[in-house]
Amino acid sequence: MTILSTAALLLSSLALSTAAWSADGAAKTVVLVHGAFADGTSWQKVIPRLEKAGLKVIAVQNSLDSLENDVIATKRAIKNAEGPVVLVGHSWAGVVITEAGTDPKVKSLVYVAAYAPDKGQSLEDVTSKYPQLESRKEYMKDDDGFLRISDQGIKKYFAADLDPESKAVVAATQGPFHVRCLSAD
Question: Model's pTM, two decimal places?
Fold first, then answer.
């Protein structure tokens, strides 16, 4: 099961339990923050389920060029959200929501297959204690320091359980991820 499918599965469970949130006023809006190499459409199967549960949904479009800019985009979404917010992050976005989740409108943080660093800890710090994943061999870095995943890497690792047409869309729409994000804390 790929990360995107895992996120959809976990958040559909969240959607089923969120009807009570909207009914008692504990949460009005879910702000979804995508991970590296993705964009807000990675939540497209989750958004209708959350809306059906009576929640408003905002999917953040991260620039993936720095932690600072992704936190700014997320804070903007929180600011524009109606009522109390549940802030959800996938993968890299766990780092982002850890920083942005201090806003008083945020009532809870949900980490979906996401990194949850301690204060002052970077993504690199969190992952350095584990063996490097084979999928990292499929990362390609351009002259400006942005990483992309090869088409083969998308097919084999990033979106392995999607149909061929969806894999092609993921490959074409992936967001380049700057290497500085790995060491930002």
Answer: 0.86
